[in-house]
């Protein structure tokens, strides 16, 4: 069978592309190998669009705002179509300085947020304020007696597994075909992609979207393009506080690179490590120690929590720190959406929609030149 579009990769971006294409009536095949360590399955689920593009300039800011707007629309659509639980809730985000060595970084962050607020009006004055120690602990009871605290009320959380499942089910109801296989190579004829070879089978398509996360670089040589994506391991620990209502606790960020995200089932996820260890999705004693040490430094009240689960994700990081999103230069009918690093659950849904739009010759609603694959086109 010939498809209009084939999507390689069933993580958050690939599934979003499939969902948007299926809703438009496009004959779509999603090929999903579902590797161990897929970042979507382990992601913390923090949605903080107001600070996503912080300090990155106007293009980053505009893109972040579009990601947030699309998220709200997507959650409403899925609720109307299926009534599916995605774990989405607006719970707010606290930025805290626990120890003295974090105060300068805290103040720098405050200045960046205030400058963005002055320039663009985001976050709004109602959504952004300083907290006292007592107020911070009231919102997140296990918290240490912090030195400084800020609250962004509009930040949210989402369960990446549930969201991806909801989009996949909705897309299948609209005609999406899903195949579990490994794509070995692209089929390229006369400078255009015409399909893929998956598990030895040639499958034809008019368009191909590459959304393979940390594994996307496999196709670079065929495309005359460096896709400098590499896996960055993140170990996240899910803790349980039986009998405690954690459903409205905010996301908490301190300044040693870690966070906590709370869920309705008396669960708090804490993490995460950032390790360049190749395609190794195994948790380690050192990683677990790092995560727990930092979690208890920020929130010593979690000391008696039960260890519920360890999740490991191989985040697709890029050498220049930016996503790779857009049409591939020099080869027709192929698009890339990858390299979201630790913010894939924030960027993935809108990036997948952009890829679906390009595959339908629809121009994006926002300037994506900052993320174009063209910056990695080989000149030899």
Looking at this protein, list some descriptive labels.
eight-stranded mixed sheet; 19 strands; 380 residues; FAD/NAD(P)-binding domain; alpha+beta; D-Amino Acid Oxidase, Chain A, domain 2; 2 domains; single chain; globular
Could you provide a short overview of the structure?
This protein is α+β, with helices and mostly antiparallel strands.
Would you kindly provide a written description of the structure presented here, covering whatever features stand out?
With 380 residues, the protein is α+β, with helices and mostly antiparallel strands. The protein folds into 2 domains: 2-46 and 161-229 and 320-376, FAD/NAD(P)-binding domain (3-Layer(bba) Sandwich), CATH 3.50.50.60; 88-154 and 231-318, D-Amino Acid Oxidase, Chain A, domain 2. 31% of the residues lie in helices and 27% in strands. It has helices spanning 12-23, 39-42, 49-52, 58-81, 103-120, 133-139, 160-173, 220-223, 285-298, 344-359, and strands spanning 2-8, 28-31, 46-47, 89-90, 93-97, 128-130, 148-152, 156-157, 177-179, 183-189, 192-198, 201-210, 229-240, 251-253, 259-263, 267-271, 306-318, 324-327, 334-338. Strands 1, 2, 9, 10, 11, 12, 18 and 19 form an 8-stranded mixed beta sheet that branches. An 8-stranded mixed beta sheet has the order 6-7-5-14-15-16-13-17, sandwiched between helices. A 3-stranded antiparallel beta sheet has the order 3-8-4, with no helix packed on it. A hairpin with a 3-residue loop joins strand 15 (259-263) and strand 16 (267-271).
Under CATH, the topology of the largest domain is which? FAD/NAD(P)-binding domain
Uncertain parts: none
Q: What structural class results from the helix and strand content?
A: alpha+beta
Per CATH, the class of the largest domain reads Alpha Beta
| DSSP, total strands | 19
The N- and C-terminal alpha carbons lie at a distance of: 36 Å
Q: Give the topology string: H per helix, E per strand.
A: EHEHEHHEEHEHEEHEEEEHEEEEHEEEH
**Overall tally of domains:** 2
Give the fraction of residues assigned to helices. Answer: 25-40%
Instruction: Identify the CATH architecture of the largest domain.
Output: 3-Layer(bba) Sandwich
* Major sheet attributes: 8 strands, mixed
% residues in beta strands: 25-35%
Q: What's the average pLDDT? A: 95
Q: If helices are DSSP runs of H or I spanning 4 or more residues, what is the number of helices?
A: 10
The CATH homologous superfamily of the largest domain is termed FAD/NAD(P)-binding domain
* Radius of gyration, CA atoms, in whole angstroms: 21 Å
Shape: globular
């Amino acid at each position: 069978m010939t498809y209009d579009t084939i999507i390689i990769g069933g993580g958050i971006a690939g599934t979003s592309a499939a969902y948007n294409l299926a809703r438009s009536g496009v004959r779509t095949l999603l090929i999903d190998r579902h590797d161990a360590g897929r970042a979507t399955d382990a992601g913390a689920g923090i949605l903080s669009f107001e600070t996503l593009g912080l300090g990155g300039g106007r293009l980053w800011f505009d893109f972040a705002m579009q990601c947030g707007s699309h998220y709200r629309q997507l959650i409403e659509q899925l609720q109307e179509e299926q009534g599916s639980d995605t774990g989405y809730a607006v719970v707010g985000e606290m930025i805290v300085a626990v120890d003295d060595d974090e105060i300068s970084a805290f103040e720098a962050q405050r200045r960046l947020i205030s400058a963005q607020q002055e320039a663009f009006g985001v976050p709004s004055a109602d959504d952004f304020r300083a907290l006292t120690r007592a107020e911070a602990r009231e919102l997140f009871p296990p918290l240490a007696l912090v030195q400084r605290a800020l609250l962004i009320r509009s930040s949210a959380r989402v369960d990446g597994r549930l969201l991806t499942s909801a989009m996949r089910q909705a897309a299948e109801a609209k005609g999406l075909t899903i195949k579990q296989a490994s794509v070995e190579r692209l089929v390229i004829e006369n400078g255009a992609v015409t399909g893929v070879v998956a598990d030895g089978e040639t499958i034809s398509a008019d368009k191909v979207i590459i959304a393979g996360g940390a594994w996307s670089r496999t196709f670079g040589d065929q495309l005359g393009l460096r896709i400098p994506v590499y896996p960055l391991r993140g170990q996240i620990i899910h803790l349980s506080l039986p009998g405690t209502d954690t459903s409205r606790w905010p996301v908490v960020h301190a300044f040693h690179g870690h966070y906590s995200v709370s869920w309705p089932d008396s669960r708090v996820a804490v993490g995460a490590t950032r390790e360049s260890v190749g395609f190794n999705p195994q948790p380690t004693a050192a990683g677990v120690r790092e995560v727990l040490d930092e979690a208890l430094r920020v929130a010593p009240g979690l000391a008696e929590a039960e260890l519920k689960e360890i999740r490991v994700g191989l985040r697709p990081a890029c050498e220049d720190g930016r996503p790779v999103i857009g049409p591939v230069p020099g080869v027709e009918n192929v698009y890339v959406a990858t390299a979201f690093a630790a913010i894939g659950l924030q960027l993935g849904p809108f990036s997948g929609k952009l890829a679906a739009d390009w595959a339908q010759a629809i121009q994006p609603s926002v300037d994506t030149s900052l993320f174009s694959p063209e910056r990695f086109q080989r000149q030899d």
